[in-house]
Amino acid sequence: MKRISLLELAHDIVGSYLEPGAIALDATLGNGHDTVFLARRVGEAGQVFGFDIQAPALVSSFQRLIQQDLQQRVTLRLASHADVLLHVPKQYHGRVKAAMFNLGYLPGADKAVITHVGSTLAALEAVSGLLAPRAVITVLAYPGHAGGDLEAQQLAAWAQQLDGAPFAVELILSSHDKPTAPRLFVIRKQVDLL
Ligand SMILES: C[S@@+](CC[C@H](N)C(=O)[O-])C[C@H]1O[C@@H](n2cnc3c(N)ncnc32)[C@H](O)[C@@H]1O
């Protein structure tokens, strides 16, 4: 049996919402893997907005984008995702098809710099207001590191209160059945346009 990682699953889900010309957000750039994925899926006519609070994350993401000639489709911001409304131009509000959050710390860098529940939830609130009528947010959370446990707990509570039309929330647990294992929150928005 092939095991699919939660990150691969997040890419599959997000990919099903994206078509050429779409607008997408990477709320946690890190080393830019998710941004490259999003940039490919939105095509030349699309646009990705990527956020991180650490300059090395922007450098690493930009290098990765340049290697694949995808940099024109991506706007990188050295800013907290909590300030997303300041950085995504008004013309795109209500048009965001997908947003990815991959929480925790930047692999290979200072593990003390992590996402924090206050800014994570502020960002999720803001991003949920930017979504297109049919859209998705994925949040990959890691309760296994200090601070990640509280963040995952409060995220679950936030997601639970959001669940209900037009949002549907699904929690997907890792196949490694441990309380510290990563978990994927999938927040789908579906507005009936008829
Ligand atoms: C697990 S990494 C992301 C991995 C990344 N998506 C990739 O594809 O490589 C988490 C990132 O979140 C960033 N981060 C922490 N707090 C943040 C905030 N308030 N706003 C935006 N990014 C933040 C960290 O600096 C770190 O680079």
Key descriptive features of the protein:
194 residues; alpha/beta; 7-stranded mixed β-sheet; 6 helices; 7 strands; globular
Word description of this protein:
By secondary structure, this protein is an alpha/beta fold. The chain has a single domain (6-190), classed as Vaccinia Virus protein VP39 (Rossmann fold). Helices cover 33% and strands 25% of the residues. It contains six helices and seven strands. The protein has helices at residues 6-15, 33-42, 55-67, 84-87, 117-128, 148-162; strands at 23-26, 47-52, 74-78, 96-102, 131-141, 167-173, 183-190. Strands 3-2-1-4-5-7-6 form a seven-stranded mixed beta sheet, with helices on both faces. Strand 1 (23-26), helix 2 and strand 2 (47-52) form a beta-alpha-beta unit.
